[in-house]
Amino acid sequence: MPTKRHVSLFRNGRNQAIRIPKEFELEGKEAIIRKEGNKLIIEPVKKMDIIELLSTWEPMDEDFPDVDRQLLPPDEIDL
After folding, report:
1. Contacts of 10 (CB under 8 A, 6+ apart)
2. Which is more confidently placed, 7 or 48?
3. What's the pLDDT score for residue 1?
4. In whole angstroms, how far apart are CA 23 and each of 4, 18, 73, 76?
5. Cα dihedral angle (55, 60, 61, 62), rounded to 10 degrees?
6. Among 11-15, 32-36, 39-43, 57-61, whose mean pLDDT is lowest?
7. What are phi and psi of 18, to 5 degrees?
8. Deepest of 1, 39, 40, 57, by most Cβ within 10 A of its Cβ?
9. What is the pLDDT of residue 10?
C-alpha cells in the first residue's frame, strides 16, 4: 500500500475538498481534521464502547432522590 499519492483539490460550494483514493479510505462516516504547520491530518472518529464512555465520566457526588417515598406499598399477590 503506498504511503503517499498525488491528488487534486477542488471546490465544493464554499469548501475546498479532496477526493480520497480507495487505498486511503477511512472507516465510518465522521473524521477529525486538524492542522499541524502546513500539514492537514485527517483521522477517523473512533466509536467508544460503553466501558470507554463510562470511564470518561466524572463520578457523581450527590445522592439519588428517593423516588419510592411517595408511592403506596405494593399489593400482596398470592401465587
Report:
1. 16, 17, 18, 19
2. 7
3. 63
4. 10, 14, 65, 66
5. -170
6. 57-61
7. -140, 140
8. 40
9. 95
